[in-house]
Amino acid sequence: MNEQQMKILHQKIHAGVKGAIATSIEQHRQRGQSISIWLEAKLSPILYLTLPAVNGRGFLVHSPILTE
Fold first, then answer.
1. What's the CA gap between 29 and 24, in Å, rounded?
2. What CA–CA distances, in Å, run from 35 to 5, 28, 29, 47, 68?
3. Residue 27 in contact with residue 35, Cβ under 8 Å?
4. How would you write the pLDDT of the chain (68 residues) with one tens digit per residue?
5. How high is the pLDDT of residue 28?
6. Every domain of the chain and the residues it spans
7. How far apart are CA 17 and CA 34, in angstroms?
8. 48: closest CA among 25, 22, 24?
9. Rounded to an integer, what distance in angstroms lies between the CA atom of residue 40 and that of residue 53?
10. Radius of gyration of the chain (CA)
């Protein structure tokens, strides 16, 4: 696999992972379920009320909690 093919594959994987995370966060937000993330070497809960919304294209709306 050459460098260009690796770059394309990486972009597809990255887009797929971001989409899956956005879908999961949106489902938790709609169900009123909180999530936990690993942040600064400890498990940090995020209440469902503070979870960012997902726009119509499946991308997280900017949030100070979750950054790219």
1. 9
2. 35, 7, 9, 7, 17
3. no
4. 899 999 999 999 998 988 888 888 888 888 888 888 888 888 888 776 676 666 655 555 555 444 44
5. 84
6. 3-50
7. 20
8. 25
9. 24
10. 14
8 Å CB contact between 28 and 34: yes
The pTM for the full model equals 0.62
Listed residue (41, 42, 20, 24) closest to 33, CA to CA: 24
For residue 7, what pLDDT is reported?
Answer: 95
- Which residue matches tokens 């900017």? 62
Q: Structure tokens of 63?
A: 């949030």
Instruction: Give first-to-last CA distance, the chain, whole Å.
Output: 27
Query: What's the gap between Cα 23 and its chain centre?
Result: 8
